[in-house]
Amino acid sequence: MANTKSAIKTARKISRETKINKLRKSRFKNAIKRMNALIEKKNKKEALAYLPKLNSEIMRVAKTGIIKKRNASRNLSRVTKKINAL
């Protein structure tokens, strides 16, 4: 257990940040799952409409460092390829 004032504050801060990061990562994963569901249904119109929202979500997560920027770019590229293939 933390035994100095600064260590206690740091532990509290890390706890807060962990909750926020988990929330953001789960939003990112859910967005990817939703897009994959639209692609599986072969619903190109809805997938194209959802693409900007997905892009925003992915870039927000990448910007905060929860996933790496290359990972974000790869995910977006693969989704876009799948949509274009429909």
Distance between the termini: 55 Å
The stretches of 5 or more residues where confidence is low (pLDDT under 50) are none
Largest sheet: none
Strand content: under 5%
Number of strands: 0
String of helices and strands: HHH
Q: What is the overall shape?
A: elongated
Number of helices: 3
The percent range for helix content is over 70%
Walkthrough of the structure:
It is built from three helices and no strands. The radius of gyration is 17 Å and the shape is elongated. The model has no long low-confidence stretch (mean pLDDT 93). Helix 1 packs antiparallel against helix 2 and helix 2 (44-63) runs antiparallel to helix 3. It is mainly α.
Short description:
Helices cover 85% and strands 0% of the residues. The chain is elongated and about 60 Å long. The chain contains three helices and no strands.
